[in-house]
């Protein structure tokens, strides 16, 4: 049997990621270019700048990944690309390159759901969860709990009604005058703070259901900072504790409601040490296993897109025609089962 190799292209926001996944050898190479420095002076992602930089980075990164894997472009069996959700212009860059490559090489292409990429990134690890499981997907743009029966069989149990938790981290960091990206900066400052100096609310834990809300937590941080501007570290600590405990409480509730004994946490915020500590402690208390991708694969990357696309492409799923279609808004529940 010929070794089926999938090239993955990630360009949904401000990181250009390329990965190669082999049927025989698993992940064989990946490269990432982050645009953090480009957007730093603006305090957030500028969509037009993100799109322009993806144009410059995609082809050199593909060349670098092929060199790392010691294969030729013609050895690729299929191309997977992030079709959504994300920034429309950024998605179009990766999609156009993917479709053009597939057309020129006469190989199939497949548009991948960005959040399915995050959800399945844990399958790049040696220690993998078994299906079914509950997934906590937490990033700058998404916060959701998903019941995962199998690949492509997803039921959203709850999601944020306003700010995603990563967005709340970034906005609170901005309130405190920290750098961009705000999430890691706030987490670093929180390590210097004392727990218990300020008591922040745990949003929506006193009502049934699994939805989230983080905009009020951000407002509480702003009001606290206005009164105590000299206590940044303690405010950062209080915010992080409230946010991570809220996520943990909802995860525990999701496991109880579904009867699952496995939790997967993925997305950029899943790299947060305080969140991992909360979830690990919770898992021991309820006799549940908790899995995470490695740190490099929590944030956006091409490896997860190569894997997610590969698992569908080897089952014959392809994007038909040469039309370039992206979906800036796209529900996980719309995906086809594998």
From TrEMBL:
GO molecular function, one term: iron ion binding
Cofactor: how and how many bound: Binds 1 Fe(2+) ion per subunit.
Keywords: Acyltransferase, Cytoplasm, Iron, Metal-binding, Transferase, tRNA processing
Pfam families: TsaD
Span of domain Gcp-like: 27-306
Top-rank EC class of the record's enzyme: transferase
UniProt xrefs under InterPro entries: ATPase_NBD, Gcp-like_dom, KAE1/TsaD, Peptidase_M22_CS, TsaD
Cofactor: Fe(2+)
Taxonomic superkingdom: Bacteria
Xref: NCBIfam families: gcp_kae1 (TIGR00329), T6A_TsaD_YgjD (TIGR03723)
Family: Belongs to the KAE1 / TsaD family.
Record function comment: Required for the formation of a threonylcarbamoyl group on adenosine at position 37 (t(6)A37) in tRNAs that read codons beginning with adenine. Is involved in the transfer of the threonylcarbamoyl moiety of threonylcarbamoyl-AMP (TC-AMP) to the N6 group of A37, together with TsaE and TsaB. TsaD likely plays a direct catalytic role in this reaction.
Protein name: tRNA N6-adenosine threonylcarbamoyltransferase
Originating species: Bathymodiolus azoricus thioautotrophic gill symbiont
